[in-house]
Design brief:
heterodimer; A: 187 residues; alpha+beta; 42% helix; elongated; B: 272 residues; alpha/beta; six-stranded mixed sheet; 10 helices; 48% helix; binds iron/sulfur cluster
């Protein structure tokens, strides 16, 4: 027996209500940002809207759309387009898999100071670091790639790199003994 | 000029040192200069190393633990009170390897005070555990050459989300807003200038977080407005005076209440 039948059996007096089917608009966005060689990065996102008639359908629909969007983004983001020359001066601008500039605005300018740029590149080369890994670290910490870091952020990244890779004393060890116990050598 | 406790640098060594000190300026140097030029001479020109006062040591260890706490949030890692306590005790031991502290039998009491301050801070801080800092303990600088001044350099303790600059201080007295603002104006203005130069944005405010060493420790957060044009002018004039004073080697004593905590008292008394 269906629910509707039960209802009519127990409440015969009530007038039949007209069933209204409400459409629920469901909007989903999937975005992915990837670090690229030479401290470049690119990002792609896809948004879709879908309608469901019952709120209970949302989890299944979400699951379906998530897979759909992830597949779509993953497929496209593999085409990295134009890449700038890397910092060593070696050209990395061999033809991109999709054959050209995708207009994502890659360029070789850094937002931090020249001194900071040099220091980051030196730490990377002296410690044989993977630029991709550093790019990912910058994305994690600051939500943007290395080249887009302002001076404050770049300073934070440099401190992190020195601690993590260059086996330098940590920030406190570098700062406090110098500042407080040997005043003559302080800043 | 004076009789320093260790062999003084040669005349040319002093000249070189003065040149270096004029190339850049920092908040702590400026602060020392403004407090007493003779103290500056001992500390930054002759670079005399003195046993550290216990209060200074407590302050440095407290700072290092606060830094671990801030870095933990910056790295999205949870840092619990037990771990911080461990850091405190480890740092307390480790830092002493290279430092000479004049404990006068009070080390244990000072250590207890240090951790009590931190416990109070972690309990009463306005910073929530999920607040990710914009920056922690970062070296910054500002090129002031267009004003005819040396480069400003420094390290900012913390920048809270949204651009609020924070400086941590340990103190033995409860600060008032006016006093804190006045005493630390050169430092807060230096930070504001370096923050603006490093980010291209104006700070949204400055906070002084005082950890006050009372029987029952407490924290006092003093919120300050962003640096005003007038404060910037005052800072620049202060830096001008610093450069000019170094140029003419003007290192006269400025006796005052601050002499009570000056580590160069004996050298100062011998100065003529
Ligand atoms: S004792 Fe006072 S006057 Fe002398 S150097 Fe120290 S702060 Fe300056």
């Amino acid at each position: 027996m269906t629910k509707t039948h039960l209802k009519s059996f127990h409440q015969p007096q009530q007038p039949k209500r007209k069933e209204i089917t409400m459409a629920i608009v469901f909007e989903a966005n999937y975005s992915k940002k990837l670090g690229l060689p030479g401290f470049s990065s690119h990002q792609y996102s896809v948004t879709v809207r879908s309608e469901v008639t019952d709120i209970k359908q949302v989890p299944a629909e979400s699951n379906r759309i998530y897979k759909l969007l992830q597949d779509a983004v993953d497929k496209e983001i593999q085409h990295v387009g134009f890449l700038p020359k890397n910092s060593n001066g070696n050209s990395s601008d061999k033809p991109a898999p999709n054959g050209g500039d995708n207009g994502n605005g890659h360029d070789d300018t850094w937002d931090c100071s020249d001194k900071q740029k040099e220091l980051i590149l030196r730490i990377v080369s002296e410690n044989n670091l993977d630029k991709q890994e550093i790019e990912t670290l910058a994305l994690e910490r600051f939500g943007q790639g290395v080249k887009k870091l302002n001076r404050l952020e770049a300073s934070g990244l440099i401190e992190e790199l020195l601690e993590k890779y260059a086996e330098k004393p940590n920030r406190a060890q570098r700062r406090y003994p110098a500042r407080r116990f040997q005043p003559g050598s302080a800043k | 000029m004076i009789a320093p406790a260790v062999a003084p640098p040669s005349q040319s060594g002093i000249k070189d040192r003065l040149d270096v000190l004029q190339e850049t300026v920092s908040a702590s140097r400026l602060n020392c200069w403004q407090q007493c030029r003779l103290k500056f001479w001992f500390r930054y020109v002759l670079r005399l190393v003195k046993p550290s006062a216990p209060a200074l040591y407590v302050g440095s260890i407290v700072h290092s633990v606060l830094q671990s706490w801030n870095l933990g949030r910056w790295r999205y890692r949870s840092v619990n009170l037990e771990a911080l306590k461990q850091t405190f005790h480890e740092n307390w031991k480790e830092e002493q390897v290279e430092a000479v502290i004049n404990w006068q039998g009070e080390e244990e009491a000072e250590r207890t005070t240090g951790w009590a301050l931190l416990e109070t801070y972690f309990r009463d801080t306005p910073i929530t555990l999920d607040e990710k800092p914009e920056a922690v303990e970062v070296s910054v600088e500002a090129d002031l050459s267009e004003h005819g001044l040396p480069k400003l350099i420094g390290v900012i303790d913390l920048v809270r989300a949204g651009g609020r600059i924070v400086d941590f201080k340990t103190a033995s007295q409860t600060p008032t807003v006016k006093k804190a603002q006045h005493l630390h104006e050169a430092q807060t203005s230096c930070y504001a200038i370096m923050y603006r130069e490093s980010t291209g944005r104006k700070e949204t405010g400055i906070e002084l977080h005082h950890l006050v060493k009372l029987k029952k420790p407490k924290i006092v957060v003093t919120p300050l407005e962003p640096m005003t044009d007038n404060q910037q002018t005052r800072l620049f004039k202060g830096i001008e005076s610093y450069v000019a004073g170094l140029d003419r080697e003007d290192f006269v004593p400025s006796p005052g209440l601050h002499c009570q905590s000056c580590e160069f008292w004996n050298e100062c008394r011998r100065w003529s």
